[in-house]
Amino acid sequence: MKTLLETVHNKALFLWKKENLLNESITISAAPLTVKEAIGTPDSTDFPIQQGKEKLMEALFRGEKGQAFTNTYGNYTGSLRAVSELPLNNNFNRAIFISTLNAVTRSLNMSDHTIHCRNDGPKKCSKLVFETIRRQFGRCRITLIGFQPALAEALNAKTDIRLIDLDPENIGQRKRGVLVEGRDSTADAIDWCDVLLVTGTTLANGTIDMFMTEKPVMFYGTTISGGAALMGWNRFCPQSA
């Protein structure tokens, strides 16, 4: 049975072949951004990227940019064919593929909001998230997958939430007023909630299949922009560029 990442990869390869991109002499480059380049200077300092635990990989394709969060980063240059042939068995290769996919789908006008918001963008985003979810699903209990400080704080002020994160330094801690739970609590937190709000980074770290159950899912962030466009997934990322 194919994983969701494999399905996204197959759809991307089909698209690149259809658009005759594999045979073009096009270079894809990705490089880790500094904190300031990635998110500017928000008024809080507890975002994972500020702690040095993640960086944004950025791909440039035909003048369009696509990004992906990852904890394994570095530089890469190659053709779309070379990217399509990378084995998706580690975070580095997955980040190359996903950031490339985001840049390519943006260049084809299939996706947008592929560049992470900066400065007060996370705060503005957090002011919109609850109303967006309520409009779509009604007032409900939410399980947040991935520690995004502004979203956690905003949702906790409006409704009952649970927070799942894979960072062992966060698990068991109370962040922005919310207890951070780990992988062992995932199934229970999914069963408890009415809606899952899931970081798009799950596509890059290979955990996305864990969260695609019968419960409604809304993804957030830039990492999943291209994947969401290909798969028709619900995505929230209003302040990104």
Automatic annotation (TrEMBL):
Gene3D superfamilies: 3.40.50.11590. Residues 130-211 form the Putative heavy-metal chelation domain. InterPro entries: DUF364. This is Putative heavy-metal chelation domain-containing protein. It comes from Pseudodesulfovibrio piezophilus (strain DSM 21447 / JCM 15486 / C1TLV30) (Desulfovibrio piezophilus).
